[in-house]
Design brief:
It comes from Elysia marginata. The chain is mostly helical and 106 residues long. The protein is built from five helices and two strands, in the order H-E-E-H-H-H-H. A two-stranded antiparallel sheet has the order 1-2.
């Protein structure tokens, strides 16, 4: 884990800009601003009307079978270093380190 952390680079506090244009460097105030931001964007009312999306003319050819262990290993090997994997926040280096365990779990 220490090696993974070391490879990520130096972490430093970055200032953020408030809605009024001022630059905020205080950690406590930055957390308050982020909290306000996410409350504002996540607590919206649902729209009264929905987009009118037409039905597709034809179905897409999508494979719906089981995923093989080889496919999982191949996908893990193709991951780029230093990138977030997705919503789970697990980095590719961690996935590559557990490549022998993942297929067994699946």
């Amino acid at each position: 884990m220490k090696k993974l952390k070391r490879d990520r680079g130096i972490s430093q506090e970055m200032p953020i800009e408030a809605e009024d244009g001022t630059t905020i460097t205080d950690k406590k105030r930055k957390l308050e601003i982020w909290k306000e931001h996410f409350e504002k964007i996540l607590n919206r009312f649902e729209p009264k009307t929905f987009a009118d999306i037409p039905e597709a003319d034809e179905d897409l050819d999508i494979y719906m079978g089981n995923i093989t262990v080889g496919e999982v290993n191949e996908a893990i090997q193709k991951l780029k270093r230093g990138k977030a994997l997705g919503d789970d926040g697990v980095c590719p280096e961690m996935r590559k380190a557990e490549i022998e365990i993942i297929p067994v779990i699946l």
